[in-house]
Amino acid sequence: MENKFSRAFGENGRLRDSMEWREKILDARQRTLGSEHPDTLFSMNELAASYSDLGRHQEAMDLLEKTLEANQRTLSGEHPETLFSMNSLAKSYRDLGRYQEALDLQEKTLEARRRTLGSEHPNTLVSMNNLANSYSRLGRNQEAVKLWDKTLEASQRTLGSEHPVTLYAMYNVACGYSKLGRYQEAIELSRKVLGGRKKILGSEHPDTLDAISALEYHNNELNKVRILSSVLTAVY
């Protein structure tokens, strides 16, 4: 019941209330169950997510490092909860600008999820997306786009074209195309993302608004190229 309260707060944008509930739940579980009980470790993951949502990335990272260490010790290196902690910790590293560490951890997570869940499981697809994000952050855009393309293809085949994971992959592919100067392709994909998010999430959802901003950005970049091309044509 308490977890339902914290999630309800988060879903309604009451992030601080959600965090405070999760702190209480964790404190209670540590007292009654111990610091390494699976429910306690789950609460640590949840609280770390709240810290991350509030921009408290260092606290999120510190908590997730403890959670991962405990999961590896008490469960196994490839238990789903351990891999979830690895994935979350990698995100915290990325949030703190520690991109190489994030990438190293994401490669391990993806390899383990492929081995234990299969190459097209939703969690595996999320790991593929995240690893591609890290490639992009490190300027390895060709590798990022190649992996995003694979993620998108698998997501569309197994989850459908309007599943959130598919739309997230599509959004990322569009951003990757834009970084490679493939603006028209980026625009076409961004329109699909926007249409899907409007239908599923509504026009005012933050993810929908983000899709609008991305589409505007890709259009602006294409217009810059066209203007420059016109100027060069006129000059030469």
Automatic annotation (TrEMBL):
Gene3D superfamilies: Tetratricopeptide repeat domain. Signal peptide: none annotated. SUPFAM superfamilies: TPR-like (SSF48452). Pfam families: TPR_10 (PF13374), TPR_12 (PF13424). InterPro entries: NLR-like, TPR-like_helical_dom_sf, TPR_rpt. It comes from the Eukaryota. This is Uncharacterized protein. It comes from Elaphomyces granulatus.
